[in-house]
Structures are given as structure tokens and as C-alpha cells.
């Protein structure tokens, strides 16, 4: 899961701003993988965040969530025979791929919410659609989400209906104040730490401490970001 850094649009994003957008994008993925899957009572899945930090004026900041997909942990035979499965295994497989799609969508949605708060704009589901997420580094995430639905749902109309349903689920995850607080904390950690790899345990520790804290997190850089 990674932010797409190339766009067909001519919109320029300052490198420092792109760093922030990237951090929120990847923090959104990580939060959804851990907190979202746990909320749905799905099994935990390994992930880690790889970070490339510039060492000179010619390099760019880059971050990417590695692994974190439930569907990859299912036996290949189960995935390939999805339509022939009995109700119980099919339901388990469906829950897995739907969670993976939501976790893919949360990345660009987190970036979109960061931008809307920064610009003091309204962030609601009526202003967000699938195609709009391309503007928030979501191209590769959306392509992967579509490939999931193409594999599991034959009807185009049903795929579009399911995508809208999962987009709404992803938005509800982002719109949860506790989840957003976790994303905000991890985004700062991604930017401020000097590590090239942020382990799954480190990210989960940040989430757990954030959820246990009684006081809201405030950004020294952007105090309005708590949203």
C-alpha cells in the first residue's frame, strides 16, 4: 500500500507539503489495517512501514506500508474457488477482501481529510467519490481495490454498488475521532523519527498509547489537525 507520487494533472505540491500528505496517507493505511480489522473481529495481520528519508537536496521523502493484506493470508485454493464455496468459507473470504479494500481506501481518504482540515474546508462523504481519491495519491490503491472487486464480483453494477458501500465504510473509519487521533499520532511519528523501518509492534504501540491517553493530541505544527 503506497501513495502514488505521479499524476496526470498539472497541480504542483510543495515537497514539504507532500511529506505531510504522504505521512497521513500511510498512517491511514496502517490504522485501518490494525484498528479497522480489530473492530471487525478479523485476525491480526503483519505490516510494517518503510521510510526513505532524504540525505541531500536531491532526494525525496518516501513512505510505504508493506504487507497488511488479509486476502494474501488465505490459501490460494480458497481464493480461486470463491464462487464455489459453501456459505461459511465464502463469508469469511468476503469479509477478508472487503476489509482489504476498505484499508486501501482509507489511505487516500486520510490524505484528503488532512488537506481539507489544513484548508479549513468541509470534509464529508457527499464531497468524496472514488475518482476524487486520485487527487490524493490514490491511483495505485484504487487500482488494487478495483482488481479485488473484479476478481470476486462478476456484475459491473454490483461491483459499483459494493465499491460505494466500502467507500462509505472507509469514510466512517476516518470520521471517527479516536481513529483520526491515532492517524495523526502515527503521521507525526513517521515524519519525526529517523527510522527507515517502523515495525508493526511500534505502530500498534502508538495506537494503543493514543487510545489510552485521556487528553487529545495537539500538533505543534498544525494545531487544527485534530479535526
- Report the end-to-end length measured between terminal Cα atoms: 25 Å
CATH structural class: Mainly Alpha
Helix content: 55-70%
Shape: globular
Secondary-structure element pattern, one letter each: HEEHHHHHEH
Tally of domains:
1
Which fold name fills CATH's third level, the topology?
A: Methane Monooxygenase Hydroxylase, Chain G, domain 1
Structural class: mainly alpha
Weakly predicted, low-confidence segments: 76-82, 220-224
Q: Return the CATH architecture.
A: Up-down Bundle
Q: What is the number of helices?
A: 7
Total beta-strand segments: 3
Strand order of the largest sheet: 2-1-3
Gyration radius, in Å? 17 Å
The overall average pLDDT, rounded, is: 84
The largest sheet, given as strand count, sense and whether it forms a barrel, is: 3 strands, antiparallel
Strand content: 5-15%
CATH superfamily: Peptidase M41
Produce the secondary structure layout.
Layout: H1 15-39, E1 47-52, E2 62-67, H2 76-80, H3 87-118, H4 139-152, H5 156-175, H6 177-192, E3 197-198, H7 200-212
Helix pairs in contact: 1-3, 1-6, 3-4, 3-5, 6-7
Describe the structure.
By secondary structure, the protein is mostly helical. The protein has one domain: Peptidase M41 (Methane Monooxygenase Hydroxylase, Chain G, domain 1). Helices cover 55% and strands 6% of the residues. The protein is built from seven helices and three strands; from the N terminus they run αββαααααβα. The protein has helices at residues 15-39, 76-80, 87-118, 139-152, 156-175, 177-192, 200-212, and strands spanning 47-52, 62-67, 197-198. A three-stranded antiparallel sheet has the order 2-1-3. It is globular, with a radius of gyration of 17 Å. The two termini are 25 Å apart. Residues 76-82 and 220-224 have low confidence and may be disordered.
